[in-house]
Amino acid sequence: IGTRRASLTSTRTTCGYCGVGCALDVLTRDGDVAAVRPAADGPVNRGHACVKGRFSHGFLRSPERLTRPLLRRRSGLEPVSWGEALDHIARGLRAAVGEAGPDAVAAISSARATNEENYLIQKFMRAVIGTNNVDNCSRLCHSPSAAGLTAAFGLPGGTDGFEDVERADCLLVVGANPVEAHPVVGARLLQQVLKGARLVVVDPRAVGLAGHADVHLRPRPGTNVAVFNGLAHVLLAENLIDEEFLRHRADGLPALAALLDDYAPDRVSTITGVPAPDLVAAARLYGRAERPAIVYGLGVTEHLHGTDGVRTLANLAILRGAVGTERGFGVNPLRGQNNVQGASDMGALPDLLPGYGRVGDPVARARAEQVWGTRLPAHDGLRIAQMFAAARSGDLRVLWVVGEDVCATDPDADRVVEALEACPLVISQDLFLSETARHADVVLPAASWLEKDGTFVNFDRRFQRVRPALAPPGEARTDFAVVHAIAAACGADLGCPTPAAALAECGRVAPVFAGISHQRLDREGAIPWPCPDPGRPGQVKLHRDRFATPDGLAHLAARPYLPPGESADDDYPLILITGRRWAHYNSGNMTRRSGNIRLDAADRLDIHPADAARHGVRDGDRVLVQSRHGRATLPVRVTEELLPGQLFCAFHFPSSRVNALTSGHADTVTSCPEYKVTAVRLRGSPPL
Ligand code: SF4
């Protein structure tokens, strides 16, 4: 045993699954992972990790790992050399730009890739190709958070560090199921409740924390804005507001107060289905707490009016003076993927440069132009859904998809497949021959998070190091190396040859990150942004003296409730909500190829017993689900976790094709898809 233990190598890295950012010690031996230990000194996890971070590494050894580039020939995808694959890509890029201009090329970057990789991809698209057509998958989850928090407070990140949230005496957890989707945070929130904090849960489903809640509000899917306006109405009506804070540090109260006249609890109850007394009780708990905190998830953002949801939720913290002060712990989004925050921080967005300068702002653009030594395009690029539309209409000639399985995870999946089939050159960079890779013309073998060097930014804005515990298999390369190789094949030199150099250069483009470096992270472990100065710590709690808005004030938003894109009707009488399960992660490409498959072997359609009886289905029966957009066949799980009329399903197994059902409706501000509200019917479903 002594000899075997002596041969173990330990590598400190950051979990590559959810946005909690658990620090992990990965023990390797003979080129394989022997064990993963949660780091006792991890700033967020403190010795804990969930089933994904600890045990979902079997995918590394999967015989299905891609180890060579593939190129589409008449007979299908065939292995080729890196040189041949890169030549093909460079020829395609040159032809597209030469014949149709730089905007005929687009890239979808990834919230799973490191900061340095996201930085390099957007730099390549802007400085080499000459287009802002670069987006990342945060478009599909938390883009309304970035827009809503920026409008309310001036910065696109959560307002407080998680250790502050842990001092809260009242937790308002909205549209999130952290016990399954962010288990380490879920456990810490529960500990806080067991220590005496009051808990209000707002979620249509009886999610894990709901059983511990003082009040559980279960609004009809798509009615969040009415709920938040109703809570704000009670805060105002019962004078549970901080008048001094509102006088000196916020604006917008008169317009909001006028709007809230229409959101008395009885009317809100009619819209949302939430009993009026429960709404009042929830508002009183939040409004009377000394140190309230709001934690929310995709149940707030993935709606037709997701940005309005974030704004009206932020209203509650502003009315209470519970943001930017010691009396409360603000508004804090739980990020789904490991690097959702970082991918956007690095400027993998069609309208924003690294550090969130607008591409149309000459000052922000000039700073990047000076560092990169070239002129940059000034008009916004395409968002992900617009890229697919451009491909279908023939305007897009090259689509480069980095580490995303868009056919499995993006909504209205049949239209996504049509887009990939219509685009002359699709490049997929992935660990496996994913659904998206199967439709690609060039497939490049990629490295996983356990094989990479760089940094991630977690949900409370902490940069943390990612270190390679293993080498990628065969000829697989990191996304960082691939972007450099494609640039070189195009005759361009992107500079910043190492991830450390890339982060250093990013700090020159975006001063908000200028104090953060690999060397400093190696010494200090984690550094939150903003951190403009290498000699000073980053800022955990934001907005202490003034908000980051141009006028320094927090902005209340008067937003009316507007109905979701789809509602139940005679043809489609049930509402489908999609989300995640405990053992799996998004498209499931990694977790399905790990031991976790034994814990959860299929997507299941949750259905209330009354609906199950009405449709004559029992646990385990397979049913055909139809929406206006597509169909899927799923086994059912009968459960009272849902209210009658609602269904829930995850999308971890491509064979279930859950996103063939979801619609093209999207947030009116950010284009974040409305995953949480799709009207469906079961085969044989009788009219209501
Ligand atoms: Fe931590 Fe999230 Fe990884 Fe689980 S998946 S170990 S909660 S970072």
UniProtKB/TrEMBL annotation:
It comes from the Bacteria. It comes from Nonomuraea rhodomycinica. Keywords: 4Fe-4S, Iron, Iron-sulfur, Metal-binding, Repeat. One of its GO terms (biological process) is respiratory electron transport chain. GO terms for cellular component: membrane. This is Formate dehydrogenase subunit alpha. In the C-terminal section; belongs to the prokaryotic molybdopterin-containing oxidoreductase family. One of its GO terms (molecular function) is molybdopterin cofactor binding. Residues 8-64 form the 4Fe-4S Mo/W bis-MGD-type domain. The lineage of its organism: Bacteria, Bacillati, Actinomycetota, Actinomycetes, Streptosporangiales. The chain holds residues 203 to 890 of 891 of the full protein.
